[in-house]
Amino acid sequence: MKKQNSLFARKPAKSPKSKASMDYPETLEIIGLSHEARGIAKHNGKTIFVTGALTGETVRYEISKKHRRFDEAECVEVITPSPNRVEPFCQYYGQCGGCDLQHLEHSEQIKAKESLVLDQLQRLGKFNPESTTPPLSGSDQEYRRSCRIGINQLMRDGTPIIGFRRRGSSKLLQVDNCPILINPINKILGKLKAVLSEADSCKEITHAELSMGDQQGAMTLRIKKPLPESLSSSLQKLAEDNEFRLYFDNGQQINAFGDEADLSYQLEKSETQIGFKPGDFIQVNASVNTQMINRAMDWLDLKDNDRVLDLFSGVGNFSLPLATKAGSVIGVEGVEDMVQRAQNNAKQAGLNNCEFYRADLSKDLKALPWYKQGFSKILIDPPRTGALEVIKQLEQHQCDQILYVSCNPSALARDGAELIRQGYKASKFCVMDMFPHTSHVESLVLFEK
């Protein structure tokens, strides 16, 4: 294969010394990928993280930042390409900060993520899952059903900028179409600039949150003060012409401008509808979300005498499917509005064996009535910070199974080590390709007594 210029090549931030003066070689051999999707190289015992490089490649590079224990670099030319290197499909790749791995063949991305998680579990958590099951994955394009889009205005001429942050910068890159967004959101993205260009100013809008249910979507604009009626009406027309409804978020509350959206999604092979509101957390990848729920149901193998605790339950994404098989389900969530949404979803589904409570899951739960009742199985779906505080409190229950849904391998390693200390074994593991072409990786681990 011939030499290739790197898509990530750019002038590095001040590099005070040449590579020669630092006794650095002109090229580097890449021996692996970091959890941030950067190539890993070694020189004189020091690690160098190289953006845009892949395992097995020989690259030319420029040092961008120096640290005591490691250095950072930018790949400027690929001398010997990896056989798994591919041409990115997005015109903004390398400039936009959203994707990290479009230059790596998709199936190889999943393999790399699986290896990275297993490495962290062994290295940081000191445990290895007994079995690894096939990854969960779907389409690697047009998969994302929610996103945040930045909005700004050029000072020199007032031209609106609508897009995502540039790689390694807080500045926005104008993006007219994003291949990983589902088509209805892309339609809004492509037309929003034209609407804002007709206004005298759009400086009062900082960003837009776009989310799509099965039938309708919501376009929520974060505003610093109320917009002129004419601009609001134009934005409302844009939204409604594309099966969205317009909302404004003033930092205190989110209000619909006109009719509210009918936001919900139906889980495949199920009649269960999950309703949500703008601002609620939902899994962005509908296909992988369905596969994740199905695998959770399979691994937990629920019986009608099981009492299940669903921690960080949100709007009931796991709780409702679990309740169709278990005897009872208790969902616990930190956001009161989402607790109310989950209760409504259970009522609409005719599931009377669900109860939902609000609680701060970083605090002591032992005095709470629902906690004292005991559980046979527990599902934990925490944020990136993990769930160490609540896991330490679960020891008294000694339940049969704990299913951990992870979006942060290092938090999973730490929390998993605590469960191992409590006498559990990590019996099953898989990664989930919830965010193709990014460095983000989610995984499932089943802990059993």
Automatic annotation (TrEMBL):
Sequence segments annotated as region (Disordered): 1-21
Residues annotated for [4Fe-4S] cluster binding in this entry: 90, 96, 99, 178
Listed CDD domains: AdoMet_MTases
Keywords from the named record: 4Fe-4S, Iron, Iron-sulfur, Metal-binding, Methyltransferase, rRNA processing, S-adenosyl-L-methionine, Transferase
Keyword Metal-binding belongs to the record: yes
Pfam families: TRAM, tRNA_U5-meth_tr
InterPro entries: 23S_rRNA_MeTrfase_RlmD, MeTrfase_TrmA_AS, MeTrfase_TrmA_CS, NA-bd_OB-fold, SAM-dependent_MTases_sf, TRAM_dom, U5_MeTrfase_fam
BP terms from Gene Ontology: rRNA base methylation
Enzyme Commission numbers on file: 2.1.1.190
Top EC class for this record: transferase
Alphabetical list of PROSITE patterns matching this protein: SAM_MT_RNA_M5U, TRAM, TRMA_1, TRMA_2
PANTHER family in alphabetical order: 23S RRNA (URACIL(1939)-C(5))-METHYLTRANSFERASE RLMD, RNA M5U METHYLTRANSFERASE
NCBIfam families found in the cross-reference section: PRK13168.1, rumA
Family statement: Belongs to the class I-like SAM-binding methyltransferase superfamily. RNA M5U methyltransferase family. RlmD subfamily.
Function: Catalyzes the formation of 5-methyl-uridine at position 1939 (m5U1939) in 23S rRNA.
Protein name: 23S rRNA (uracil(1939)-C(5))-methyltransferase RlmD
